[in-house]
Design a protein that fits this description.
Blueprint (H helix, E strand, L loop, with lengths): L1 H31 L1 E6 L7 H16 L4 E6 L10 H7 L4 E3 L25 H8 L1 H9 L3 E9 L3 E5 L13 E3 L14 E3 L6 H6 L5 E5 H6 L8 E4 L6 E7 H6 L2 H36 L2 E4 L2 H9 L6 H8 L1 H22 L9
Parallel strand pairs: 1-2, 1-3, 6-7, 6-8, 9-11
Antiparallel strand pairs: 3-10, 4-10, 5-8, 5-9
Helix pairs in contact: 2-9, 4-9, 4-12, 11-12
């Protein structure tokens, strides 16, 4: 009987030890888990999220799933115009920032959307080569630049007809993103501010006649259902810099920070290749969806984009002078290096 009792006691001790060890391990693992919140304005079907998802996947892999990133698309958590304030306050941890919505707060970063000066994919190159300058601007607001950003495919026009000359758009009401809306008068049309989530409805109800948006937006919003024709331009896409709340960044363990930095560097060439391949496929798809489709010739593209170039940079140069001029000159030098590399059949230099 004593032996039986002793055996039962030993088993009980072993069970308690096992359960305790399991529970404590589970608690330790839970405590080591890092949960981050990411907010974005775009639909999950938008190509931006293809780029976001790849980044999140690589972060999970590089951190052995210690980092869990929860994505809130379609302005579910914050409106697009509130994203920067949310990052500064720490309401959200990460965003891919639509800089053009924040000309008042981030005037010296508006050149990120002056894509009329460079070719598709070069925004990735510029974003990495200018990382110190970009991070210095964000740091003043308690924000950390993660060294890369998603690239939007080129902007294009969708409306009741093709747009080859300014006569084709004269007098129309055109939806355009952010402060781009102010430049529509140069084409002889009226710019109208319509929230990203209401573009489809705006076209459907006649609030606007046409919309000027990136290729992925045309796809994710199924614009061909409310517009007859689409016209593609040839200029490079803009960069949405991926940023994190600085206090959150500082709170991360060193090995987690190192993982973010490794993946950030990896994302630069990956994004460059991705956006060039995606754009070709997307334009082919949209050709099949719209009743009419046209890609501007180099001469037509120069006509349209020539009126747009400098609309963000010139006011910045006038207001902030030499310091900003040096930054812009560096941007243009990076653009020229990229062009030269491609002419020689080489890859652009991604990093300093």
């Amino acid at each position: 009987m004593k032996k039986v009792r002793l055996l039962i006691l030993v088993i009980a001790v072993l069970v308690v030890a096992f359960v305790s060890d399991y529970c404590f391990t589970d608690v330790a693992q839970a405590e080591s888990k890092i949960n981050l919140v990411w907010a974005d304005l775009s639909s999950p079907k938008h190509d931006k999220h293809t780029q976001f998802r790849y980044f999140i996947k690589r972060i999970h892999e590089e951190t052995n799933n210690r980092v869990a990133i929860k994505m809130y698309p379609s302005e579910q958590l914050v409106k697009a115009i509130q994203e920067y304030d949310a990052i500064m306050r720490g309401t959200v941890d990460i965003v891919g920032l639509p800089v053009f919505y924040f000309a008042g707060k981030l005037p010296t970063l508006q050149w990120l959307f002056e894509m009329g000066f460079w070719e598709l994919g070069d925004s990735a190159v510029i974003g990495s080569r200018m990382s110190k300058e970009i991070d210095a601007v964000f740091a003043k607001d308690g924000v950390k630049y993660l060294g890369w950003g998603v690239i939007m495919a080129p902007l294009c026009l969708a409306g009741p007809n093709l747009f080859k000359t300014f006569d084709d758009i004269k007098g129309m009401k055109v939806r355009a993103p952010g402060i781009v809306v102010r430049t529509m008068s140069k084409w002889g049309c009226a710019g109208v501010a319509v929230p990203h989530s209401e573009i489809y409805m705006g076209l459907q109800r006649g609030v606007v006649d046409a919309t000027y948006n990136a290729v992925p937006t045309m796809i994710s919003h199924r614009i061909w259902e409310v517009s007859k024709a689409i016209t593609f331009n040839r200029s490079g896409g803009a960069l949405f810099p991926t940023i994190m709340n600085k206090k959150k960044w500082d709170s991360l363990p060193d090995d987690i920070k190192a993982a973010f930095e490794r993946v950030g560097r990896e994302m630069v060439p990956w994004t460059y290749y991705h956006i060039r391949e995606y754009t070709g496929q997307a334009e082919e798809l949209l050709h099949s969806k719209f009743e009419q489709a046209h890609k501007l010739t180099p001469e037509e593209n120069e006509l349209w984009m020539g009126t747009q170039r400098g609309y963000l940079v010139n006011p910045m140069l006038e207001k902030y002078g030499d310091e900003t001029k040096k930054v812009w000159e560096k941007v243009l030098s990076v653009v020229e290096e990229s062009k030269k590399a491609r002419r020689n059949g080489e890859l652009p230099p991604f990093f300093e």
